[in-house]
Amino acid sequence: MVMNIENYLLLGLIVFLLVLLSAFFISKLAVDPLEEYVKNLQNLSKETLHELNLPISTITANTQMLQKNLQGDKNFKRVMRIENACKMLQQRYNELDYLIKMQTKQVIKEHFFLDDLVRERVAFLQKIYPHINFNVVLTKNELFMDKIGLSKVIDNLIDNGVKYSGDSKVIDIVLQNNTLLIKDYGIGMNEVQLLEIFDNYYQVNRDMQGFGIGLTMVKRFCDENSIELIFDSSPNVGTNVKLKFKKIQG
Prior knowledge:
The protein is of the alpha+beta class. The chain folds into two domains: 2-103; 109-244, Heat Shock Protein 90 (2-Layer Sandwich). Helices cover 59% and strands 17% of the residues. It has six helices and seven strands. It has helices spanning 2-68, 73-103, 114-128, 147-163, 191-196, 213-224, and strands spanning 109-113, 133-138, 142-146, 170-176, 179-184, 228-234, 238-244. The chain has a five-stranded mixed β-sheet, with helices on one face. The radius of gyration is 26 Å and the shape is globular.
């Protein structure tokens, strides 16, 4: 009787192992083609991105050469529109390159000056919001981190400041003592709203685009890069956002 029980247990164990092995091989057969597909897709993305770099560089170089010999305001404005469009393409190129590197877990940290990056982002956003007066005061500040990711954070915070600035049309941007301040004089938020701004898709005013999932991404980036993120806001007074950086990392 004892032997029969042992035989049954042994048979049950063998059946269990066979089922487990079968499940493993079936899942591997299903996953391997998917992994191969993702790998091929990543390779295609890299190759396509590489091919895009040449025409973008060619257009940029030739528009700069054309500007030297242009005559007439109309022709100059047309070439400027081409140049601005090319800069937007370059921006998208950089973002795609960044996403590919993120997905393939490549190291994307680099040394750069935060004040130069802020000037670059303000110049870009000034073209989108020509009616806004950006008061910019910057001191030299060197960092070692994900530059493109940080530029997206800065864009998001300034963009939100503009969209919620109300009638003031003024945004202060100050960099000193390893702290970047972005300040608007708009509608502001109360304490309850401040507690909810990092929730996915939350918006202070649902008639406006802004905040939403953007601040969730901002907070995630700051947490991952040891940046202290501070919000201070009052209704009908405005909002202060501070990014506090370590002196230099790396």
